[in-house]
């Protein structure tokens, strides 16, 4: 199993008894589930029902849902003119024409044609008889469109999983390389300390036991074994999350934990080599974070 992407597209078309329905769903990444509808006015009362049906399948993401309805049924939809609103619009056209110094009669016809295309001016009203059975048809078509959407999101998720597994593998290799340099830090400090003492007191003997204690204290301060263990544990958990198709929010939280461990390693390990590897690890982790933003 692999992850599910938030990016995808689903579409379906159903025709029945002179009625044609086309449903399209476009999905992109978003922190939460956010649905924007473009529906025929006659379907407006069912918008919440449609949203609940989608929420049963899609966890999160921004969805643009468009339903187009074309009917060749006789006496199907009658047009209703919102006369008060049209009158208000036309009054504004007259005032605007006067301010601009334009002959209102020359633009009135085009203004009316433009206004009657607005849904709030001319609305389609379907009879109860014409809508009988349409709701079931809509949800049947919606189920097919959602299935098409999820198929594409799964395909995108497979590609995304492959990319993430490759990058987390790179991070694991960096952690392993950091581990190989941990002993060098203490050895380098031991050499520098002895050289410094020898320069300061060339003709004096220094307490070997005291030096050993100082080196031991330093080794404890720069020890990053626990941080590396936790980082490798997080990396393994990351792989498990991908295999189990866990949500992007869980993976994002895990990335934050990995970032904390890498930052601690960078602050504790006094080594140019490790510092360079930490910078490279941070860059890789940021790339992983960007990709995870597309995981549902």
List the helices and strands and how they pair.
Layout: E1 8-16, E2 19-28, E3 33-38, H1 47-55, E4 61-71, E5 77-81, H2 83-100, H3 104-115, E6 122-126, H4 128-131, H5 134-200, H6 208-221, H7 225-243, H8 248-268, H9 272-292
Parallel strand pairs: 3-4
Antiparallel strand pairs: 1-2, 2-4, 5-6
Instruction: Characterize the overall form.
Output: elongated
Helix/sheet category = alpha+beta
Q: What is the CA-based Rg, rounded?
A: 33 Å
Q: Which fold does the CATH topology of the largest domain refer to?
A: Butyryl-CoA Dehydrogenase, subunit A, domain 3
Q: How much of the polypeptide forms β-strand, as a percent range?
A: 15-25%
Percent range of helical residues:
55-70%
- The poorly predicted ranges are none
Number of domains: 3
Main sheet: which strands, in order across?
1-2-4-3
Main sheet summary: 4 strands, mixed
Distance between the termini: 14 Å
> Secondary-structure element order, as H and E?
EEEHEEHHEHHHHHH
CATH class of the largest domain: Mainly Alpha
Mean pLDDT: 84
The name of the CATH architecture of the largest domain is Up-down Bundle
Number of helices: 9
Number of strands: 6
Q: How would you describe what is shown here?
A:
By secondary structure, this protein is α+β, with helices and mostly antiparallel strands. It has nine helices and six strands; from the N terminus they run βββαββααβαααααα. The strands form two sheets. Strands 1-2-4-3 form a four-stranded mixed beta sheet. It has a two-stranded antiparallel ribbon with strand order 5-6. β1 and β2 form a beta hairpin. The longest helix has 67 residues, at 134-200. It is elongated, with a radius of gyration of 33 Å.
